[in-house]
Amino acid sequence: MARFSAFQLGLSKFGMVLALGAITGGLSSRAWALDEYLPLAPRVMEIDLGFERSAVNGRFDSSWERIENEADRSPSAMPIQGKFGLIDGLEGSMAVNFITLDVDGKTGFDRPILGLKYADTCLHLGGFLGIALPIGFEDVMNGGNYASMIFGAMYGLDLPYYRLLANISYTFNTEDEAENKMDQLHFFAKPEYPLPIKALTARKQYLGAYLGLNYDFYFNAVAASESVDTKKHLFSIMPGLNYTFNRIISSELTVSYPLTGKNADDVTTVRLQVYFTLEEAIYNALGG
Known about the structure:
Helix content is 12%, strand content 59%. It has a twelve-stranded antiparallel β-barrel. About 10% of the residues have low confidence.
């Protein structure tokens, strides 16, 4: 099955806002409950497992200049997501990340994310809603307990020689325990081209190459419950490969590389994902 079915009050407060912005930005752009794929078909279930490794290479300052340093932090995450096609065009999902912070030696689950997607297959348009619950391991949540609400629209086109996924979303965050917050706008586009490899097509397998384009804008910063004039921009590219082994198993390898930014971390990330898809016919076969 092809994988197309279907985010100024002083230096101390300033630093807290930037840290929170990095966390919420990672949540929105990586939230698997709100991935870029269109909803699953009715009565189709998918389990997604992944491993993600990042390298913090420096920062982009307020003049859009890259400030490099040795990658002394390499946090990792293991995203887990379950998705189910409820009715035609509607999908429900739940996702959670198991995070390891290498410098601090802390591990634990981040906030669980509940998501709903709806799309019209004729128009190739849809929308989604996500809620990150304010529970999790505080050691890895950094900003303390806070909730997030994600609203967005999506587009998906699947042709034999070309594929395109795109979305736009707005993430509203509540204030954390230190009364800090930052909201986010997220823009994403992912054109993909199938690679005509005869050895794969003869086995009904699929291999596609893509180049994702990502822009994140962070705004509405609050520190200690007071508004702060801080905004963040980050432009990234995300080259990757999509491989479908059979109707049940498929995988995806993605590298996220920041091109430029303002007041944002310079973080390179490699992510491997494996998808397990069960259709109704497979349920029946497994059930005998």
